[in-house]
Specification:
Bound molecules: manganese (II) ion
Strand content: 25-35%
Helix content: 10-25%
Radius of gyration: 19 Å
Shape: globular
Distance between the termini: 22 Å
Number of helices: 6
Order of helices and strands: HEEEEEHEHEHEEEHEHEEEE
Oligomer: single chain
Number of strands: 15
Largest sheet: 9 strands, mixed
């Protein structure tokens, strides 16, 4: 067993040499970045916007900078427990006070891309997770459970896949979420869709089971991830710290995975 000093030195040397790859799981933040769109009477967030302050001109001859505007849940973003009413009373449940070690953990990548391709309303069930555990071992403590659907490869209207009854995108079976949240000691879940719940989850029982049960269990969500197809089922480490917004319900963030090359 190496000492912590040796372990960190090996990690740093691995990144420098390329034996450990750093994979970006983040989508670009720009006005076209997809954001969730709730039906009336619910309020919606603003799309991402940049407002130029100066660009090497009379407003600031030597420097370029912008104001940014967006909702907390824009692009690749973090959902804190306080985001949902079921998580509002947990201690340390907002972006500024979650213990920072809980932003970093081993990644378990469950690949259901084929199933989501065949059925856009595909829901992850407990048997699918158990099947994964038979092959790859039990989901460890402090893990990020990432669901690979390849949904991030869809563009424009295909990403939302909306019909008259709302979006049709994959997510979690309501019965599967208590298993992940209570019978496995995870940090949270990560998905490639615009939110952690399925497109049709407004009509599930409970509605929005991933938000309701995960945040009710003081767990986190990562939405709008990409490049999950570059991760092994196990063996990667995910680093996902949100901005330290005081009393924030979430924030856009850069999500990085350290992956054995
Ligand atoms: Mn969110």
């Amino acid at each position: 067993m190496s000492t912590p000093v040796e372990t960190l030195a090996q990690l740093a040397a691995g990144i420098v040499s390329g034996r450990i790859r750093v994979v970006d799981l983040t989508v670009p933040l720009e006005p076209a970045t997809p954001i969730i769109n709730l039906p009336p009477p619910f309020a919606n967030s603003k799309p991402f916007a940049l407002q130029e302050i100066s660009r090497y001109d009379e407003r600031g001859p030597g420097w370029y900078w912008n104001n940014i505007e967006c909702g907390e849940h824009t692009g690749t973003h973090f959902d804190a427990p306080v985001h949902w009413v079921t998580g509002k009373d947990h201690p340390n449940n907002a972006t500024h006070n979650i213990p920072v070690d809980r932003f970093v953990g081993p990644a378990c990548v469950i690949d259901v891309a084929d199933r989501a391709k065949a059925d856009p309303d595909f829901l992850l069930t407990q048997p699918v997770i158990e099947e994964w555990e038979k092959k790859h071992g039990r989901i460890p403590s402090h893990a990020w459970v990432l669901i690979r659907t390849d949904w991030s490869q869809r563009k424009g209207a295909q990403y939302f896949n909306a019909r008259e009854d709302g979006p049709h995108t994959p997510g979690f079976d309501p019965k599967c979420v208590p298993f992940l949240a209570k019978e496995r000691d995870i940090l949270g879940v990560g998905v490639e869709t615009v939110g952690t719940d399925a497109g049709q989850a407004y009509r599930f029982d409970p509605a929005f089971p991933c938000h309701t049960i995960m945040h009710g269990s003081n767990k986190f969500g990562l939405a709008s991830l990409t490049n999950l197809n570059q991760l092994p089922p196990t063996g990667a480490v995910v680093v996902a710290p949100p901005l330290k917004i005081v009393n924030g319900s979430g924030s856009p963030l850069r999500v990085l995975a350290l992956v054995p090359a």
